[in-house]
Amino acid sequence: MLAYTICFIKKGDEILMLNREKSSWMGMWNGVGGKIEKNETPHDCILREIKEETGIQVSKVDYKGQVTWHDGKIYLGGMHTYMVELPETYDSKAPIKTDEGILDWKKESWILDEENLGVVGNIKYFLPIMLNDSNVYDHQFVYEGMKIVDYRAETLKEQVLSNY
Questions:
Q1: For the domain 4-159, what is the CATH code?
Q2: Residue 163: predicted pLDDT
Q3: Which residues form the Nudix hydrolase domain (predicted)?
């Protein structure tokens, strides 16, 4: 069972990103999300995390799949992935300092730029698929330390999707 959730909140060609002040990924730009609490569904978790980390109240999120990470032999963790699309006219003050870090709207092209070393490394693999493909995927990463050494994406089966 996956222990975490992550959401990318989109407005036009920008995504609300969080530069985290705490582990994991301290100092890196990432989506919003967090740990699933006991007796909480992933869906309920991401709605709570969006509200807690951004102040934005949403009732609908799109389930986009999952990201898992391994060391080649042992499962190390994973998260459910979600997207939210806000109207381009949505007024949100940013950048803004929060308890979690700094929230700011970043252009998709900036997030995905190969030379951008400030974004969590695996995002550049799975975010383009989340943005451009209506299918739901299991994004699987193999790490050696903090380095990605293998990646593959497989569509999730219908029976898995019925839970979300």
A1: 3.90.79.10
A2: 53
A3: 1-131
Which structure tokens are listed for 76? 């190390």
The reported pLDDT for the residue numbered 92 is 82
Query: What is the 3-class SS of 93-124, one letter each residue?
Result: CCCEECCCEEEEEEEHHHHHCCCCCCECCCHH
CB 9 within 8 A of CB 32: yes
> pTM for this structure?
0.91
Residue spans of the domains in the chain: they are 4-159
- What are the residue ranges of helices labelled H in the chain? 42-54, 108-112, 123-132, 158-161
Give Cα 74 to chain centroid, integer Å: 22
Which runs of consecutive H residues, i.e. helices, occur in 7-162?
A: 42-54, 108-112, 123-132, 158-161
Q: Over 60: is that where the pLDDT of 1 sits?
A: yes
Residue with token string 């995504």: 15
104 confidence band (pLDDT: 50, 70, 90) = very high
Other beta carbons within 10 Å of 140: 18
